[in-house]
Structure formats: structure tokens, C-alpha cells
Specification:
88 residues; alpha+beta; two-stranded antiparallel sheet; binds iron/sulfur cluster
Amino acid sequence: MAKLDHDPIVVLNETWCKRCGLCIAVCPFHVFEPNEEGLPLLVKLDKCTECQLCELICPDFALEVGPLKHVGKVKGEGFIPLTTASKS
Ligand code: SF4
Ligand code: SF4
């Protein structure tokens, strides 16, 4: 798999996210883990290939993946970039 020429960005709307866990389950590279509330946490962002499976499977359109310039244009208020975080 070719390495990306930029850092992937995942943005999430926490209000829209219903904590169903589908994005966490579908990611082939285990980029996410749930936090204690069930929200997706980025734990292995360096493994993300921007395949967009997580974005496509989200029933609530709460997630988007791509370069920051792109997602900033597509998504609006309420979407915040997920940061790499520990599970605590
Ligand atoms: S874009 Fe693909 S690799 Fe990246 S977090 Fe989503 S499902 Fe995982
Ligand atoms: S698939 Fe969408 S609604 Fe479900 S946990 Fe992921 S971001 Fe939230």
C-alpha cells in the first residue's frame, strides 16, 4: 500500500454520532477504539489509508476522512478533527 503524501484527518460531529460503533468495527486497520462513551477514538492514525469505509458506513453522516482542506469545505459547524488519543 502506497504511503499517503499527507497526514490523514478524520472529523467527527459528536452531536450526530449515535455511538453505534460501526466505523470502529469496519476499519480494516483498527485505527479506532471506542472511548468510555462509545465515541470513536483515533489510536492508530498512522495506519489510516483514507479508504473511507468508516465514512461510508456511518448511518448518521457523522464522520469524514480526508485532507483537512477537503473536509473543511465539505463539512460545516459541529465537525471537529479527531486527534490521536489514548483510551483513558
Ligand atoms: S478511512 Fe479507512 S483506514 Fe482510515 S480510519 Fe476509516 S476505515 Fe480506517
Ligand atoms: S458509525 Fe457514525 S454514528 Fe456510528 S460510532 Fe461511527 S461516527 Fe458514530
